[in-house]
Amino acid sequence: MTRQELISQIRQKESFLCVGLDPDIKKIPAHLLREPSPLYSFCKAIVDATAPYAVAYKPNLAFFEAEGTEGLEAFGLTVEYIRLNYPDILIIADAKRGDIGNTSALYARSFFNHFGVDAVTVAPYMGIDSVNPFLGHEGKWVVLLALTSNPGSADFQMLRLADGKRLFEQVLETSKSWAGPDEMMYVVGATRGELIGDVRKIVPKNFLLVPGVGAQGGSLEDVCRYGMTKDCGLLVNSSRGIIYASSDTDFAESAATEARKLRDAMSAQLQSYRK
Amino acid sequence: MTRQELISQIRQKESFLCVGLDPDIKKIPAHLLREPSPLYSFCKAIVDATAPYAVAYKPNLAFFEAEGTEGLEAFGLTVEYIRLNYPDILIIADAKRGDIGNTSALYARSFFNHFGVDAVTVAPYMGIDSVNPFLGHEGKWVVLLALTSNPGSADFQMLRLADGKRLFEQVLETSKSWAGPDEMMYVVGATRGELIGDVRKIVPKNFLLVPGVGAQGGSLEDVCRYGMTKDCGLLVNSSRGIIYASSDTDFAESAATEARKLRDAMSAQLQSYRK
After folding, report:
1. From residue A163, how far is each of A173, B83, B153, B156, B162 by CA, in Å?
2. Which of A108, A158, B49, B224 could form a disulfide with B228 if both were Cys (CB 3.0 to 4.6 A apart)?
C-alpha cells in the first residue's frame, strides 16, 4: 500500500485507528476454543467487527508463535482473510525483527512475499544492514522502533549521547537517510506527548505508529497536538482496549463499540486540525 | 543447562564450538529437496556429523520462518532431535526477539516451554521489561545482543554517550544488574578482537557468544587472547563455513571435517591458556 493510498483511507474513514491483534489463547472467549483454529476465529471476528473503523491491523507475532506452528498458521490465515476481504486496510506484522543483512533478507522474504503483509516492525540496534533488506519493496513499509511505550524505553532509548541528542533522536536522524516517508514509519509511544513533538522536529512527514493510548495511559489529544501533520501522519494503535472489551460471546460487538468510539474521537481530531 | 554443565561439556570435548544452523532452502544440497522436510533433513545430518565437536547449536529462526509453517515445523523437529539424541548440547534459538513485557513473556513461553530450547538471543533496545520475561527460568539463558559482527553495528552500538562510554558498553553495564553470569550471555562479534577486551572489563565472567570468526573475518586467536577466562567463557559460532562446506552429497562429511578443524584449533587454545 502506498502512502497516498493510506492517506485516502484515513480521509474516507475519518479514522487513523490501527487495531492490534494480540490473540492470547488464555484470554479469548471460551466458546472459541472449540473452533479448529481458535486464534484465527477470534481474529476473523474482530476484523469483521472493526473493519469499518480501522485503517490498519497490527497482528503481533509473539501471540501467534506462542502456539507454535498452529499459531503461525493462524497468523497466515488472518493476513489472508484481511487481504481478501479488506484489501484497503494496511497490515503491519509486529515482529520487531532485525538481524545481519543476509538473515534480515530472509525475514523480509517471509513477511512480504510468503505472508504478504504491507509492513514489518524492525528493531534498530544492529544498524543499516539489518534494516536495508526490508526497504525497496514496492508498496511495503518498515516501521522502525524509535521510542517505545514501555518502562524499559528509559534504559537505552533515552540515553544522552556525547553530542547532546538522545539515542532515539539519533536513531531517527540516522535512519531517515536510509529511506524516506514513503516507506519508513516509526514506532513512537504515546505515554509522554511532548516527546512526540521532539520526534516531529526530526521526521516532520513520516507516519508514526503510536501505541500506548488507552491501556498504557497515553492521551489521544496529546498525540494529535504534538504529532498530527496535514496528511494526518499518525496511526494510533489500540489492542487490549478493543479486542478484550468483552470476554463473552458478545466480544465482537463490544470490540466494534470500542473501535467506533475511538474512530469518533479521531474524526473529531481530524476535523479540528483541518480548520 | 546450567553454567557448570556447559563448562564440563567444554572440558570433555576440548571445544567451545557453536554450530550455526542456517538452513537456506536455496543453498542446501539438491538431493535433499525430495525429502518431506528438506530443512529438517539437512539440519539432522549436520547435527549427526558435527555433534562430537560441538557444545552448542544455534538455529537461526529467520531461515526456518522463511518457509512459513513448514519451516517452523522443521525448527521444532530439529530442536527435538538434538534434545533427544544429544542432551548435553546447548540449543540457542537465534531469534533476536524483544517486545513489551507481556509480549516478551509469550516469546519466552514459545521458545523455552513449547520448543524447549536452552537459550534465546534477545535485542536490548526496549530495555529491562523486554528482557526480564526471559530470565528466571531454571537452566535457561538470555543471550543479549551487545556488539554485533555486522557493519551496521557502527551505527548505534558504537555511539559515544555523554559520560564517555559507548552504547554497547552501557548495554553491558545496565544489563549486568538484571542477571548474573549464570543466566546471561552476550553476543559479541569477533571482527575486532580488542573490543572483546573492552567487553571483558565490564563482564569478566559471562559467557560470550562470538560470531564472525571465519566467513566474516575474525580470528580465533584474537578472540581467545581478549576473551578467554578460566572457565573458557566463550562460545565461538561458525555457520556457513561448516554447514555449506560442500553443496554436494558429501555435505555432512565436509561439515564434520570443518567442525573437527575448528575443534582442534580450539583445543590448542584451551591447552595454551591452561598453562
Report:
1. 13, 49, 19, 13, 7
2. B224
